[in-house]
Every structure is written in structure tokens, then in C-alpha cells.
Amino acid sequence: MSLGDRYGAHRVLDPPGALPQAARRLDNTSPPFDNEIGIAVSTLHITATSFQRLWREAEQQPERMAETISRIVAERAKFQDPVTGSGGVLLGTVDFVGPALREKIDLAPGERIVTMASLALTPLRLERVGRIYPATGQVEAQGYAILFESGPWARLPFDLPEPLALLAFDVAGAPAYAAKNVCAGQRVLVVGGGKAGLLVLHEAKKRVGVTGQVILVEMDQARCQVAQSLGLADVVIAADATRALDVARQVAQVTNGALADLSFNCASLPGTEMATILSTREDGEIFFFSMATDFSRAALGAEGAGRPVRMVIGNGYTPGHAELALQVLRENPSLRSFLSSLLPAI
């Protein structure tokens, strides 16, 4: 039996000794090992931070964006934004399940799944890049991917359209953390009202109850209106989160000086760390789910401001996160309808 390293180290070509996420290049040509899953790819879902950066770089031209995606995969044998280091997830049809895995997992060739491991560590080769959907970051593609033994995956649900489930799976970690950590009566701040932010708002609003308060900080007026119309936030602050003092003053005002007990940073643009830190009370907790987060800026900024907050880098994987993200869509028809409106015809 031909077994690879469960974390994929056997597919790292450069530099030797690295794990796949940190590698400059992977092996995407060797057939699947006996403890790997082979997937025929149909759609990539690129993280918002990476998609927006690359979309701007491509001057919002689909042909140039497709060329950029193809070039990155050709160079790295995976999709990983060379600036942010982030990737996304993919949707495809199972082509191969290694014999070493067949007794461990309930999965068979022909099933449609989403990889819950980042594209930044997933061996990938592309034969074609098709239509690009800027509203969601989804990209039609034809190719082949390898999922390591350690890589989580999620089976597509029968009751939700594939593009909608894919969208939810891409940001599943953030609402799962909200579900695990938000308590009744808390003041919860969400910075960034994109897809991840909306799912976090839903979980926060559900869990703080009538005695709590949910606050959204978002610069885009359209996103502010969406959150208000869906009833996902008690207070919506239309502000630029890169202007930390302005945001902190407004959060202090709407909380009567108490600030947030718990904050989630889901912004897709850099420079929002200090607005989140200064808007969170002493000994409060912050979850950074933005791939634009700069560790040194957050750590040194909190230190320099004398803010004893607990800062957590949000892990995109937590047990049960895929099903929880789908449950948000099932229990909030208005949110599901809005997210569906962003997608290609479904």
C-alpha cells in the first residue's frame, strides 16, 4: 500500500520540510496515494480578501482574472494568493477514495463534496477556468485536486442549491465560533458585513437574546442596508474600520461607554485591527476571521494602546462547522434569499 503523509508533506516540492500551506510549490501530478481523495473540480470559491485584491489587480476584467488564477495554479500547483497567503475552498465530484480511507470515512466516488481545507494547501491542477462571479468569489473551473487524509470535507446537502452551500461552507468557521462563544446578554461587535459577517450576525443575534446587543461596523452603505433590512443587528454603524478612533468613539456611544464584550473581525480589507481592539472592553475577546489580519499590527497595536484584550486567530475548522453554516441558511429564510440573489441562476 502506498501511503502519503497524513498532512500532505509528501507532496511538498519546495522548500523541503515544509507543510503544504507554507510550501512554494506542491506535487499536483502524482496519482492519489492510498490515503488520499481525488476530486474532479467544478468550482473554486476564493476567499473574499484574495478575490477582491486580485479582482482589483485585474482591473475587474474576467479574462485577466482567469489568467491570474491559471498562472498562480501553474506556478504553485495550488491556488494561494501570493500576497495574502489565503485560498478558499472547492466543489467537485469524488473520483477516487484511497483504500486506506474506505473503512474510516463514508464517502464513495461520484459524490459531490466541498473541501473544507484551504485551497492554499490543496494540490490542484487546472485545465480550464470558466465564468467568474465577482459577487460571490466563485469561479467555474475544470481540473483535479487532491485531499489529504487530514483534510476535512463536507457532503453537499440535498435541500440547498450547490452554489449557496459552497458559499456557506467557505465561511463556516466564523459563525461556528459565534455559536460556541456568544452568550446571552453580551454586547457583540462584528466588523465587516460581507458573507461571513452576515452569518456571524445571525448567530450573535440569536444567542445574545433580548438583553444583549449586536453591533455591525461596515463602510459599504448597501451592506449596512442589508443587515438592517434582515434585522441582523441592533445597531449598524456606517464607518470606515481603518479609522480606528472614529469607530471606537461610535461604539462607545452606542454602548454607553461599555464597549463590546466580544468582537468578530470579518473585514476583507487590511488595517481594521485597531478599530476592533479599541472597540472591545478590557479583558474582552476578539476573533480575527479576516485573512487581511496582520498579526504584528494587532499584537503591537494592542500593546501600545494598553488594551488587555484576548485575541484569537479564528481557525476555519471546528467540528460541526459545516452543518451549522447550513443550519443558519435553513432557519433564516430572509438571509438565505439575500445570499441566493448574489449567486448565478440557481
Which architecture of the largest domain per CATH? 3-Layer(aba) Sandwich
Here the CATH topology of the largest domain equals: Rossmann fold
Alpha carbon gap, first and last residue:
42 Å
Number of domains: 2
> What best-fitting shape do the alpha-carbon axes yield?
globular
Can you give the helix content as a percent range? 25-40%
Radius of gyration: 20 Å
So how many helices? 11
Strand order of the largest sheet: 6-7-3-4-5-8
Features:
single chain, 346 residues, alpha/beta, Quinone Oxidoreductase, Chain A, domain 1, Rossmann fold, six-stranded parallel beta sheet, 25% strand
Topology at a glance:
Layout: E1 12-14, E2 25-26, E3 37-46, H1 48-57, H2 62-76, E4 88-97, E5 112-115, E6 124-133, E7 138-147, E8 153-155, H3 162-170, H4 173-181, E9 187-191, H5 195-208, E10 213-218, H6 221-229, E11 235-238, H7 244-254, E12 260-265, H8 273-278, E13 280-288, H9 295-305, E14 310-313, H10 321-331, H11 333-341
Parallel strand pairs: 9-10, 9-12, 10-11, 12-13, 13-14
Antiparallel strand pairs: 1-2, 3-4, 3-7, 4-5, 5-8, 6-7
Helix pairs in contact: 4-5, 4-10
Short description:
Helices cover 33% and strands 25% of the residues. It has 346 residues and is an alpha/beta fold.
What does it look like?
The chain is α/β, with parallel strands linked by helices and 346 residues long. It has 2 domains: 9-156, Quinone Oxidoreductase, Chain A, domain 1; 173-322 and 325-336, Rossmann fold (3-Layer(aba) Sandwich). Helix content is 33%, strand content 25%. It is built from 11 helices and 14 strands. It has helices at residues 48-57, 62-76, 162-170, 173-181, 195-208, 221-229, 244-254, 273-278, 295-305, 321-331, 333-341, and strands at 12-14, 25-26, 37-46, 88-97, 112-115, 124-133, 138-147, 153-155, 187-191, 213-218, 235-238, 260-265, 280-288, 310-313. The strands form 3 sheets. A 6-stranded antiparallel sheet has the order 6-7-3-4-5-8. Strands 11-10-9-12-13-14 form a 6-stranded parallel sheet, with helices on both faces. β12, α8 (273-278) and β13 (280-288) form a beta-alpha-beta unit. It starts with 11 loop residues before the first strand and ends in a 5-residue tail after the last helix. The model has no long low-confidence stretch (mean pLDDT 96).
